Amino acid sequence: MERLQRLGRIVSKSASEVKESRLGIGFEKLDRDVFDPNKAYDKVARIGVKKVRIQSGWMKCEKEKGVYDFAWLDRIVGELLSRGLEPWLCLCYGNPLYTPLAQKVYGAVGCPPVQSEEEMSAWLSYVEATVKHFYGRITLFEIWNEPDCAYSWKHFFGEERDLMQNAYEYGVFARDTARVIRAVAPEAKICAFASVGVGDLAFINRALSTGLGEVIDYASYHCYSPFDMDRVRTIRNFRDILDLYNPKIGIIQGESGAQSDSRGSGAMAHFAWNRDKQTKLMLRMLLQDLYAGVEFTSYFSTMDMIEALNGRVGERASYLDYGYFGVISADFDEDGRSTGEYSEKKSYFALSALASLFEGKAEAFRFPVAREYLPSIRVNGTDCTDNTVQDYTFRLDNGDTALVYWNAVPILTSTYEGTITYSVYGQDNECVRLVDLSTGEVYGIPEEMKNDQRNGGIRLRNLPLSDSPLMILFGKNTKIAEK
Q1: DSSP state of 316
Q2: Which of 61, 128, 273, 283 lies 20 to 30 angstroms, CA to CA, from 426?
Q3: Contact 276, 300 (CB under 8 A)
Q4: pLDDT in tens, 408-431
């Protein structure tokens, strides 16, 4: 960036200052009391995202058959709403009052109530009571979490797991749950799947074949992978399978994240993660989701916390498996609860900058862009010629347009610094700036790096190129805080 003129930084906004956003964040696992939300509410509000995913915790709400206590969840919902955030509720997990397996599983994680009519009837009664209690404050309800994973649909047939049988079971389970939600709150929005295997069209297709597609408004997916070259295509394949059943179903990305520490457990564990890599992958994933046209995309998660996906009751060591997905870091006490200062990571500030830029209904917007290959003194005498360069064009809610780009080298093993040249047509060439999305810093582009192509075209020569997303911003409407 040393050839550019630093102008300032993107002005961050808190959730209360943002009317609408296609960016959200996870605030999960409070049914298992894994972190102190009181230390996190203000910090998450200052990011500037709107949607906050929380989990309902059936076993925490119903400890005596037929008696529901939502006080703990009321406090969370109220604190989020008071800060301008919009909670949406994932209805999960099991309950040891009804499901024997749940008596052995920490937090009853992934114990679906599908073994008997009593279990299912109790679940539907719980869903009815929950939706009645929260509807108005919460309008979007999601049915279960990652049912295509063994940890989250702990139900096997014989010695082998029958994924297609699980898909059918989940389809019927979600269909019947959705019908109860619709009867209680006709205007509520209903979401199904929360599927990690978004590329597993067989599972999605089998579940939809139960009639599920007729009763939901959204389908959600989760995607944890250090490889992001096929992400947009995978989302479009998901769109195609949904269209076979109901083209009106919208798509939500409900969980995607990256670790910030190589010691982490859970998704993408045991890789060489650090805070820079977390930030880069977070930006790359969220930008691709936004471009692919999801309703909104949610980063996992607010906090570093235990994973506790396969914990066993009475065996503390089985759930002291720490995940470092948070944009806020924490220490851990002897029970695995997130403690300490709760300090913001680099990813926190990057997400805040992205949220400010993509406030409102910012969306994919095509305009003419041509990549060129010019001599460059920066790297090997020429601009980057790699076919791994990704670029996406957007219209921001304030009317400015943007070209976002990066070199998608393997994020765990490579970094990249080079240059790139673009010719762009039909945009506001009077005010062209470059934004480093990892920091929110804004730079002016020197005149010697710009060529007038006439008739509305401009060539931007030898711009910085990195494995972390950069944005070329066209227009005067995006406000920056001066130096």
Answers
A1: G
A2: 283
A3: no
A4: 999 999 999 999 999 999 999 999
Q: How far apart are CA 371 and CA 243, in angstroms?
A: 34
Q: What is the arithmetic mean of pLDDT over 352-368?
A: 97
Q: Count other Cβ atoms within 10 Å, centred on residue 87.
A: 23
pLDDT at 324 over 70: yes
What is the 8-class DSSP label of residue 462? E
pLDDT digits (tens, 9 = 90+) for 146-183: 999 989 999 753 445 688 889 999 999 999 999 999 99
Alpha carbons 384 and 378: distance in angstroms, whole number: 10
Exposed, middle or buried: residue 58 (CB in 10 Å: 0-12, 13-18, 19+)?
Answer: buried
Closest by Cα among 56, 132, 91, 59 to 216: 91
pLDDT band per the 50, 70, 90 thresholds, residue 483? low
User: CB-based burial of residue 303 (10 Å sphere; 0-12 exposed, 13-18 middle, 19+ buried)?
Assistant: buried
Which residues on neighbouring strands pair with residue 348, listed in sequence order? none
User: Distance between CA atoms of 29 and 36, rounded to whole angstroms?
Assistant: 11
Residue 11, number of CB atoms within 10 A of its CB: 16
Structure-token pair, residue 389 = 């360069």
Which is nearest to 109 in space by CA: 308, 325, 264?
A: 308
C-beta separation of 261 from 217 below 8 A: no
Amino acid of residue 354: L
Average pLDDT on 262-289 reads 96
Mean pLDDT of 113-128: 97
Q: What is the mean pLDDT of residues 252-266?
A: 96
Q: Does the structure show a pLDDT above 90 at 471?
A: yes
119 strand-pairing partners? none
**What is d(CA 459, CA 372) in angstroms, rounded to the nearest whole number?**
9
The amino acid present at 398, given as its one-letter code, is: N
pLDDT of residue 161: 67
Q: Are 49 and 15 in contact (CB under 8 A)?
A: yes
User: Can you give the pLDDT at residue 157?
Assistant: 37
In sequence order, which residues have a C-beta less than 8 Å from that of residue 10 and are 6 or more positions away?
353, 356, 357, 435, 440, 441, 442, 478, 480, 481
Q: What whole-number distance in Å separates Cα of residue 235 and Cα of residue 372? A: 29
User: Quick one: which of 105, 25, 117 has its CA closest to 328?
Assistant: 25
Tokens read off for 395 = 């219209």
Q: Which tokens belong to 412?
A: 């765990």
Find out whether 113 and 99 touch, Cβ atoms under 8 Å.
Answer: yes
Which run of H or E residues covers position 193? strand 189-195
